[in-house]
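Extended Data, panel c. Modelled sequence:
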Amino acid sequence: MTDNPGQTTAGSRPRREVLVTARFFDAQAMDALRARGFEIHTGGVAFDAVDSMITGDMHAALERCSAWIMGIPPVTRALLERYPHLRALARRGVGYDTIDAQAVKDLGRLLTITPGANEPTVADHTVGLMLAVGKRFFESHRRMQAGTRAVVVGNELFGKTVGLVGFGRIARLVARRLRGFDVRLIAHDPYADEPTAREAGVELASLQDVLALSDYLSLHAPLTDGTHHLVNPSTLAAMKPGAILVNTARGELVDDAALLAALKSGKLAGAGLDVLGSERDPSLESVTRELLALPNVVCTQHTGGSSHEGLARANMLAARCVISALDDATPLPPGCVVADGRLR
């Protein structure tokens, strides 16, 4: 559907139009766009396919729209070439591995993200998964539901070694939250610098040391060719026996079949997973079902970055990016630009 559809008159400025397919895009962000004269299209969002399908309504809107506020749809070079009027892509979130950023630049378009908006939410979620798995909250809950008070005993987070793979903004927020638990914090990130780590109370270490020493291993790396299946049979074998794995980054960082084997064998004590490989690879659905059936696994629905507060911040920042992209008098918010081919 469209918001206040109308026709432009001869000699008037063309109506600026935006397609919004990001879920939970709120009224305040919509109002910010309307206040700047944008017509909003919201129909045909394929939520059940993680925004991965271009429906008939979306096709019609993309043929008209100058900007697209999106979740995580796959944006290919072919798609961009198909819609030449699409000038700006505003990703509501920070990961953009489903978008061909080089094609965005080559074809003279703009791609933005919303850094900082939902990072506190992801950090909270990460620590929550550590506690839920370590203290075996859901095992206890299920026993209560079944009518038994047979006690399950978990482990403290206090005094443990927490390893962070990747030391970007979210990992640094996780480290800040964990200080109150009196943990030892170690991290591996080839791009991290010692002063930043030292200020956060974190020791930088090799990946092998982080794997071998961590009671809790938390993934915060971007998905690249080099990090795909970073957690695999070899790295799992190198992990400390009885460790807990937490992944709130990208599902493809983990070989889920290998993780399942490590959990079944007792090599790992548990896992907290907000992301899974089956999100993008349906052939892994059976592995996901087996992971969900394990009592020492806690899974959430890729909601680590979703909270009312975080979504509101991200929505408004995405709206600001669109307004800035289509209004040369308004500078783009700092840190939002991923690829900009408009000056080619």
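The chain is about 35% helix and 15% strand. This feature is highlighted in the accompanying rendering.
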